Amino acid sequence: MTARITLLFTFCTVFTSSLAKAAITASFSQFDNTAIVFTLKGDIPVGANIGAGAPNVLFIGVPGDTDWVASQGTDDTTTNMGSPSRLASSSAYNPNDAGDFIQVVYDANFSVGDTVDTMVTLNGNNIIPANVDPNSMIVSAGFDSLAVIPDPTTDVGNAIPEPATYAAVLAMIALGVIGFRHRFKGETRPSS
């Protein structure tokens, strides 16, 4: 009995931890007209589409042109926070007809499972923070089309599992609880 419970618990833990593996997220600690400071952290998730165009670049922004970058910005500080160290010495923000974006350039093309842990600090004097909500930004790896940058088809920043995934996890937990209760229901307990 104990072995079955342990096996079920282990299976549920492994299953849910694999779902919880975070995609790449951009966490902003400052976003104003003096500076943009954020970290990029996570892994390129399974099933991610890495764009054929610039597959070594992460683009951060809102898909479509929101006109929040007034002029080209150059690299200020970009730092590797963890391993593996794969950061090139380039990051900037760009005004673009297909969408304004921040780009962070890495030293090799991305593939599924690659880890990113980068801190970026950019001078914010050439941005218009009122024109964009950083919480609505996506992180895309490369691009498939120059029509929209960052490209939603290469979004690697969606870390929220589908509702069906939550349902599957809850169903497995419920089955485990039912099996556990059913097992004990038929046993006789010694009286004290």
CATH topology of the largest domain: Immunoglobulin-like
CATH architecture of the largest domain: Sandwich
- Work out the strand percent: 25-35%
Radius of gyration: 22 Å
Main sheet specs: 4 strands, antiparallel
Unreliable stretches = 13-20, 159-163
Shape: elongated
Structure report:
The structure is a single chain. This protein has helices spanning 2-20, 163-185, and strands spanning 25-31, 35-43, 53-61, 77-80, 87-94, 101-106, 115-123, 138-143. It is of the alpha+beta class and 192 residues long. It has a 4-stranded antiparallel beta sheet with strand order 1-2-7-4, with no helix packed on it. A hairpin with a 3-residue loop joins strand 1 (25-31) and strand 2. Helix 1 runs antiparallel to helix 2. The two termini are 23 Å apart.
Sequence-ordered SSE layout with sheet pairings:
Layout: H1 2-20, E1 25-31, E2 35-43, E3 53-61, E4 77-80, E5 87-94, E6 101-106, E7 115-123, E8 138-143, H2 163-185
Task: Pick out its properties.
single chain; 192 residues; alpha+beta; Immunoglobulin-like; 4-stranded antiparallel beta sheet; 22% helix; 30% strand; transmembrane; membrane; signal
Write a brief caption for the model.
By secondary structure, the chain is an alpha+beta fold. It contains two helices and eight strands, in the order αββββββββα. It folds into two domains: 1-8 and 15-22 and 160-192; 23-158, Immunoglobulin-like (Sandwich), CATH 2.60.40.
